[in-house]
TrEMBL record:
Cofactor remark: Binds 2 Cu(2+) ions per subunit.
Location in the cell: Secreted
Protein name: peptidylglycine monooxygenase
Secretion signal span: 1-29
Predominant location: secreted
């Protein structure tokens, strides 16, 4: 079935059929999938194809979402992500874990600024208003597949707040779809198991709002406090900007008894390289009282101001930190955002930051 997006309000009733079909496939996936063995040779891993249902994007910079309802009678642990996309088609893809989807349609327009001239077109956020929402995976720039380390998994279903998984695809360029017959099934093959994982994975997204002046280097920075009584173990990070990003860096900050900050780099990259999850530079545990910080060094040669926004002509500043907690639940805090420039900087007096690694944060 090809879904022409100018008419996707007509497929709202397909959600029930889609959800039932995908639910059945997810519940039976272990018996249908080939299995692989972990180091202890006892873990059977299923492979679930979570793909766009043959959509035909009809305008540039379109964000589309499609949901799957997770079988809530069992606990599943997602242990790997295998992209089915190229950067020639998809600018980026995100997987959201939701308590409820943002729409009852099989596919909907889910950009951050989602709106439509067609009042019949379904729009909405990836996750439903008031429901739990978290990012569990992100992909861009032809990043390869990601397999989590042994014993680590994202828990979904049963007593997890994640009852739906929503796939978001950003279509920056739609030239290949203009003939009206070429469709897209970009998405992600989820690797999962029923075996209980005691190391529960989570993702904390650090980012900013703000704007970048013309013909200028600008720092987009954020910092947040770890206030929950948990110990998190970082193991991977990912950076994301659009075309103006030069360096993205993230840090763990510990404060000694004299109030001095000790910055430990978690990761630093050129964000225009493949935007995959890379191993962190430090796996030191992060505990209550620590702080996390990120900086995107942006360089604009444009003659106009560039704002944070959803399109390729806008910018983004994101540092994703993937971690696990042992025999515990992940952080309730899923996002750490600042207002960004010209209002927020690490150097602001009210941040109470010192020993700021200015050079290290902005040079590869």
């Amino acid at each position: 079935m090809h879904i022409r997006l100018e008419n996707f309000h007509m497929v709202a009733s397909a959600l029930a059929i889609l959800s039932v079909a995908l639910l059945a496939r997810l519940a039976n996936g272990l018996s249908e999938s080939s299995s692989s063995s972990s180091s202890d040779h006892t873990t059977t891993v299923g492979r679930f194809p979570f793909l766009m249902p043959k959509v035909i994007p009809y305008k540039k910079e379109l964000y589309l979402c499609t949901p799957v309802k997770v079988d809530d009678t069992k606990s599943y642990y997602i242990v790997g992500f295998e992209p089915n996309a190229t950067m020639a088609t998809a600018h980026h893809m995100l997987l959201y874990g939701c308590g409820a989807p943002g729409s009852q349609s099989a596919v909907w327009n889910c950009g951050e600024m989602a709106k439509s001239d067609d009042v019949k077109e379904e729009t909405g956020s990836p996750c439903g208003a008031g429901s739990s929402s978290q990012i569990i995976y992100a992909w861009a720039r032809d990043a390869p597949k990601l397999e989590l380390q042994d014993g680590v998994g994202f828990k979904v279903g049963l007593d997890s707040p994640i009852k739906y998984i929503v796939l978001q695809v950003h279509y920056a360029n739609i030239d290949k779809f203009k003939d009206g017959t070429t469709s897209d099934d970009s998405g992600i093959f989820l690797h999962y198991t029923l075996k209980q994982m005691n190391k529960r994975a989570g993702v904390l997204l650090l980012g900013t709002g703000g704007s970048i002046p013309p013909h200028q280097v600008e720092y987009m920075e954020t910092v947040c406090n770890i206030s929950e009584n948990k110990t998190i173990h970082p193991f991977a990070y990912r950076t994301h900007t659009h075309s103006l990003g030069r360096v993205v860096s993230g840090y763990q900050i510990k404060i000694d008894q004299e109030g001095q900050n000790h910055w430990t780099r978690l990761g630093k990259r050129d964000p225009l390289t493949p935007q995959m999850f890379y191993p962190v530079e430090s796996t030191a545990p992060i505990r209550k009282g620590d702080r996390l910080a990120a900086r995107c060094t942006m360089e604009s040669n444009r003659s106009t101001v560039t704002n944070i926004g959803a399109t390729n002509n806008d910018e983004m500043c994101n540092f994703y930190l993937m971690y696990y907690v042992e025999n515990d639940e992940p952080l309730q805090m899923k996002y750490c955002f600042s207002s960004g420039p010209p209002y927020f900087y690490w150097k602001n007096k009210d941040t109470e930051l010192n020993n700021i690694p200015d050079y290290d944060a902005s040079h590869l």
